[in-house]
C-alpha cells in the first residue's frame, strides 16, 4: 500500500522553491483557478452552457453547471481520472470560488490546517463532505450520454454560446485538421479499426510496399480525429471536432462541421479556412465560397499537379526579386541565470563528494 501525506506549509514551500528544490509544478495555481471560475460564475457562462448540456438524468440531483465546472477543474489540472476529483478540489481553487452556502475552504490561523466543508446539493448527506458531489456521480453523468450527443453539443450549442460572449477573433481564421488516435489493440474499442502505418505514422497499403518498407511498417488500432481549429493570436482553440473510425475519409466530416458551425454562430465569423490537400473537394469548396462566404486556402506541394500549373502560369509574368533582411542579432547573455548557476554548483558539489581522496604523498603543500 502506498501512502502519500500532504501538509500545508507555505513557508517551507517558498524556501524550497527559492532553492530550486521541487519535483513537479501544477500547470495552474489555486489563485488562477479561483479567478477563472469567479469570472465564469460572474458572467454566468457555465449556467448558459448548462441550458443545452446533454444529460441522461430525469431528475437533476447535481446541477449541470457544477458537473461542467468539475470537469473543467479536472482538465485544468491535466487529470483524466475522476478518482482524482477529491484531491483536485482540495488543492485547487474551485471551492473558493463557489458561494459559501455550497462550500467553504479556509486556512485555520492557529493550526495552519485547511478546513473544507461542503454541503452538497440534494440534502441527503448524513456525514461531513469534502467535495460537493461524489466523483462517481460525475463519471456516470458523462458515461451515460453517448459520444455523438457530446460532440453535437460541443459543435453547435457550445459554439453559439461562445459567440454570444464575443469569443471568436475578428480575423476569422480557421484550420481544418485530421490526425490518427492510436489505442491499444483491443476489439472492445467500438468503431476502431486496425491499419498499417509507416515509420512516420502515415497510413500505407501493405500489399504495395517493397520488402524494405515492410520491415518498417507496423499495425495500429486507431480512430481518426477531425478537428476545426480557430486561431486566436499565437494560440488555437477547438471550434469543432469529431472522432470517427480510422478508415473514414476526413473531407465529408470536416465540411459537415463547417456547415454546423456557420449555422450555430451565423455568417461572417469564419472568414478564412486553411486546409491541406486531403480535404480537396471541388463541390464542397464551392459551397464554402458561394453559400457560407468563406475563403479557402490549401497550400501546395511539389508532388501536386497544381504545383507545375502554378509555375507555368508564373513564367508568363516578369519576376522581381525582393531581398529578405537578415533577422536582428540578439545581444549575448552575460553570465548564467541564477537557477542554472545554482544547479551547476549543486552538481559540482555532488561530484566532489563522489571523488576519492587524493594520495597524500602526491599532494603538494
Number of helices: 13
Characterize the quaternary organization of these chains. Answer: single chain
Q: Strand percentage, roughly? A: 15-25%
Radius of gyration: 28 Å
Task: Give helix and strand order, one letter per element, not per position.
Answer: HHHHHHEEHHEEHEEHEHEHH
How many individual domains? 2
Number of strands: 8
Class derived from helix and strand content: alpha/beta
Low-confidence stretches: none
Main β-sheet description: 6 strands, mixed
Average pLDDT, all residues: 87
Between the first and last Cα atoms, what is the distance in angstroms? Answer: 56 Å
Shape: extended
Q: How helical, in percent, are the residues?
A: 25-40%
Task: Output the keywords.
365 residues; alpha/beta; two-stranded antiparallel ribbon; extended
Topology record:
Elements: H1 10-18, H2 30-43, H3 45-50, H4 64-76, H5 85-91, H6 94-97, E1 103-107, E2 114-118, H7 135-143, H8 147-164, E3 173-183, E4 193-197, H9 211-216, E5 218-232, E6 235-245, H10 250-265, E7 272-274, H11 282-290, E8 295-297, H12 305-314, H13 338-354
Parallel strand pairs: 3-7, 7-8
Antiparallel strand pairs: 1-2, 3-5, 4-5, 5-6
Helix pairs in contact: 8-10
Account of the protein in words:
- It contains 13 helices and eight strands.
- By secondary structure, it is of the alpha/beta class.
- The chain has two domains: 134 residues, no CATH class; 154 residues, no CATH class.
- The strands form two sheets. Strands 3, 4, 5, 6, 7 and 8 form a six-stranded mixed beta sheet that branches.
- The mean pLDDT is 87.
Amino acid at each position: 500500500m502506498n501512502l502519500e501525506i500532504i501538509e500545508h506549509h507555505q513557508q517551507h514551500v517558498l524556501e524550497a522553491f527559492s532553492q530550486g528544490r521541487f519535483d513537479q509544478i501544477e500547470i495552474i495555481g489555486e489563485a488562477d483557478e479561483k479567478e477563472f471560475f469567479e469570472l465564469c460564475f460572474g458572467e454566468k457562462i457555465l449556467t448558459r452552457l448548462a441550458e443545452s448540456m446533454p444529460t441522461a438524468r430525469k431528475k437533476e440531483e447535481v446541477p449541470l453547471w457544477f458537473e461542467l465546472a468539475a470537469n473543467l477543474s479536472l482538465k485544468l489540472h491535466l487529470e483524466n481520472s475522476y478518482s482524482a476529483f477529491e484531491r483536485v478540489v482540495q488543492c485547487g481553487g474551485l471551492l473558493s470560488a463557489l458561494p459559501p452556502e455550497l462550500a467553504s475552504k479556509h486556512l485555520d490561523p492557529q493550526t495552519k490546517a485547511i478546513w473544507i466543508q461542503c454541503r452538497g446539493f440534494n440534502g441527503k448527506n448524513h456525514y461531513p463532505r469534502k467535495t460537493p458531489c461524489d466523483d462517481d456521480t460525475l463519471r456516470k453523468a458523462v458515461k451515460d450520454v453517448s459520444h455523438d450527443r457530446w460532440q453535437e453539443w460541443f459543435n453547435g450549442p457550445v459554439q453559439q454560446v461562445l459567440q454570444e460572449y464575443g469569443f471568436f477573433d475578428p480575423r476569422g481564421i480557421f484550420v481544418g485538421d485530421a490526425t490518427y488516435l492510436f489505442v491499444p489493440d483491443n476489439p472492445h474499442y467500438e468503431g476502431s479499426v486496425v491499419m498499417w502505418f509507416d515509420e512516420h505514422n502515415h497510413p500505407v497499403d501493405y500489399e504495395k510496399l517493397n520488402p524494405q518498407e515492410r520491415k518498417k511498417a507496423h499495425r495500429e488500432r486507431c480512430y481518426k480525429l477531425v478537428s476545426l481549429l480557430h486561431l486566436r493570436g499565437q494560440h488555437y482553440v477547438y471550434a469543432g471536432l469529431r472522432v470517427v473510425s480510422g478508415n473514414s475519409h476526413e473531407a465529408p466530416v470536416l465540411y459537415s462541421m463547417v456547415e454546423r458551425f456557420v449555422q450555430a454562430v451565423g455568417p461572417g465569423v469564419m472568414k478564412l479556412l486553411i486546409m491541406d490537400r486531403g480535404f480537396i473537394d471541388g463541390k464542397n469548396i464551392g459551397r464554402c465560397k458561394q453559400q457560407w462566404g468563406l475563403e479557402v486556402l490549401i497550400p501546395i506541394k511539389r508532388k501536386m499537379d497544381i504545383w507545375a500549373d502554378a509555375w507555368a502560369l508564373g513564367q508568363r509574368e516578369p519576376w522581381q526579386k525582393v531581398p529578405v533582411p537578415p533577422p536582428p542579432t540578439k545581444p549575448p547573455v552575460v553570465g548564467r541565470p541564477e537557477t542554472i548557476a545554482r544547479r551547476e554548483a549543486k552538481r559540482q558539489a555532488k561530484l566532489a563528494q563522489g571523488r576519492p581522496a587524493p594520495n597524500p604523498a602526491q599532494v603538494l603543500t
